[in-house]
Amino acid sequence: MIPSAKIFAGRGTKALAERIAEAYGQPLGEVAITEFSDGEFQPSFEETVRGGRVFLVQSTNPPAENLLELLQMIDAAKRASAKHITAVIPYFGLARQDRKDKPRVPIGAKLVANLLTAAGATRIMTMDLHADQIQGFFEVPVDHLFSSSLFLPDIEALKLDNLTIASPDMGGSKRANAYGNQLGAEVVICYKQRKKANVIDKMTVIGDVKDRNIVLLDDMVDTAGTLTKAADMLLEKGAKSVRAYCTHGVLSGNAIERIENSALEELVITDTLPGSRESDKIRVLSVAEIFASVMKKVHHHESISGHFVM
């Protein structure tokens, strides 16, 4: 008989971890965090993990303490003789730094991969990486899950006529095409030009959007500049309605204000990231069931290929 696995959470993703544990069918394990007056902290497992499998749930969004806390928990589990250590990272921070796009810059995603492996993680579980090739940065197994198992049924339930899937940039065309094939919908691409990060110079659309109900897809929404500009442009081009589905709701700066004032009818995100979602236009779907299901299959050495639908 396979002994039960244990699920622990970092402070940054505690609420989601509780939902995952509930869906898994067991309570979260006890972790104590000692904080020193200078801001240093030290996590400690308050129960044995010797010889077993542990799942450590923590997104690595800023501040950097979230990543450091996860690394320390991995190291603690390794030194406590855990046999399998799976870092469950719903949102993989620094994923946009997946290559050198100009001289003298780091490849942050590769650095994080090295740190997680060096700390002692034996498996990585994450969702909708900004770039698929980040999986190749690891020398341990990576379970790359997709939010499409949540988003596809939700889009179908809308029963939109003249449905068209749109990517807000060229990089998301593969994702948009996959959704289009699944839903039997047309696909259009928004083409944008930037002069600097988070600032769009100009944007146009490749494809016909007149009298169509548009669903924009992206892996994340940060400042919402691209998303809202795309929505406004598509409406100007004759679209009947525009809504968006984005896995990771970073929503930094004045993103919520932009969404409120945009042509978007609705923004659907998941709960991979914590934070306030105070807007009538924002709806949140939980990824807890997906992660719990895959974690259980991994623990029992069962196939998880059915979860890789995109």
UniProtKB/TrEMBL annotation:
Pathway: Metabolic intermediate biosynthesis; 5-phospho-alpha-D-ribose 1-diphosphate biosynthesis; 5-phospho-alpha-D-ribose 1-diphosphate from D-ribose 5-phosphate (route I): step 1/1. It comes from the Bacteria. SMART domains: Pribosyltran_N (SM01400). It catalyses: D-ribose 5-phosphate + ATP = 5-phospho-alpha-D-ribose 1-diphosphate + AMP + H(+). InterPro entries: PRib_PP_synth_CS, Pribosyltran_N, PRTase-like, PRTase_dom, Rib-P_diPkinase. Its EC number is 2.7.6.1. Its cofactor is Mg(2+). One of its GO terms (molecular function) is ribose phosphate diphosphokinase activity. Keywords: ATP-binding, Cytoplasm, Kinase, Magnesium, Metal-binding, Nucleotide biosynthesis, Nucleotide-binding, Transferase. Residues 6-120 form the Ribose-phosphate pyrophosphokinase N-terminal domain. Coiled coil: none annotated. One of its GO terms (biological process) is purine nucleotide biosynthetic process. PROSITE patterns: PRPP_SYNTHASE (PS00114). GO terms for cellular component: cytoplasm; ribose phosphate diphosphokinase complex. Involved in the biosynthesis of the central metabolite phospho-alpha-D-ribosyl-1-pyrophosphate (PRPP) via the transfer of pyrophosphoryl group from ATP to 1-hydroxyl of ribose-5-phosphate (Rib-5-P). Belongs to the ribose-phosphate pyrophosphokinase family. Class I subfamily. NCBIfam families: PRK01259.1, ribP_PPkin. PANTHER family: RIBOSE-PHOSPHATE DIPHOSPHOKINASE FAMILY MEMBER, RIBOSE-PHOSPHATE PYROPHOSPHOKINASE 1, CHLOROPLASTIC. This is Ribose-phosphate pyrophosphokinase. It comes from Phaeocystidibacter marisrubri.
